[in-house]
Amino acid sequence: MQYFLFRRTIGFVLTLLAVSVIVFAVMNILPGDPALTILGLDSTEDARAALRLELGLDAPVASRYLEWMSGAVHGDFGQSYAWSVPVGELIAERLPLTLSLALSGMLFTMILGLVMGVLAAADHRRFGDWGVMFVSQLGIALPAFWLSILLVLLFAVKLRWLPPGGFPGWDEPLAAMRALVLPTIALGLVQSAVLARVTRSAALEIMRQDFVRTARAAGLGRSRILWRHVLPNALVPIVTIIGMQFAALVTGTIIIENVFYLPGLGRLTFQAIANRDLFTVQALVLMFAAIVIAGNFVVDVAYLLIDPRLKGRMR
């Protein structure tokens, strides 16, 4: 177990290091002048030279990368050109909202997807199964931004049950939770449709096993067999897709936050791109990559907790 965790930790660090090199290369090494990108085509050469000097863009590429990574380890990503504040402060201010939205979307996805998938498997080739498959296929086909607009029109404009957008802050917990309801549904509905189909397939595979037939012969109830025996043994493929979905949920916040005007990392990404704030964009891409890689690391560890028999295969 310790050796496995050590290997995965090393892999996590190396992957994040490789991502940092790619991100830095795209922003600083590929053809193009970062100062020209920030100031625009109408800028003068003197203005661009002054900006290069101010931001340290005239230093060698290798030293700039080492300085950036050294600061990133301590949470210092440099100074934001657009907001004139440290990039780390911008990220720290908006990270809680993005993580809250991603985690609530993941929770919504897991609950709805697992329940729909298990019920579809239990009602295989009957009305319940067909209904779940139809709804899940419809959910997969719906774009998240279009679904967001429909939710706003129905629950905010028509019924007036929930706010259409904005975020009041964490000082008002109930208002903050209400503000995240529609974004959570919009973010998690498509992913729950995918999870429902994977759960159904995994559950059907387990239901064909001998121990399930033995449990039925022993007189165990249908719900107990499904939730106590079938679902736990089907978790390995389900956890795999959940890990992939967490990455999709984190990156999906970029669109959802802009639709609902939520001041998280997703909206900050759009604003930084619009303002040509390359240092902020650079830090945000690295941050999103770190969250996704960390999610995959947690999934790898979860495999061992779900099925200890996998220890020997993961050495």
Automatic annotation (TrEMBL):
Boundaries of each ABC transmembrane type-1 domain copy? 95-299
Entry's localization field: Cell membrane
Membrane topology (UniProt): Multi-pass membrane protein
- Say which domain of life the source belongs to: Bacteria
**An example Gene Ontology cellular component term from the record?**
plasma membrane
Q: Specify whether Transmembrane is a keyword of the entry.
A: yes
Q: Which InterPro entries match?
A: BPD_transp_1_N, MetI-like, MetI-like_sf
Task: Give UniProt keywords alphabetically.
Answer: Cell membrane, Membrane, Transmembrane, Transmembrane helix, Transport
Named from the GO MF annotations, one term is: dipeptide transmembrane transporter activity
| Stated family | Belongs to the binding-protein-dependent transport system permease family.
**Per its record, how is this protein called by name?**
ABC transporter permease
Classification of source organism: Bacteria, Pseudomonadati, Pseudomonadota, Alphaproteobacteria, Hyphomicrobiales
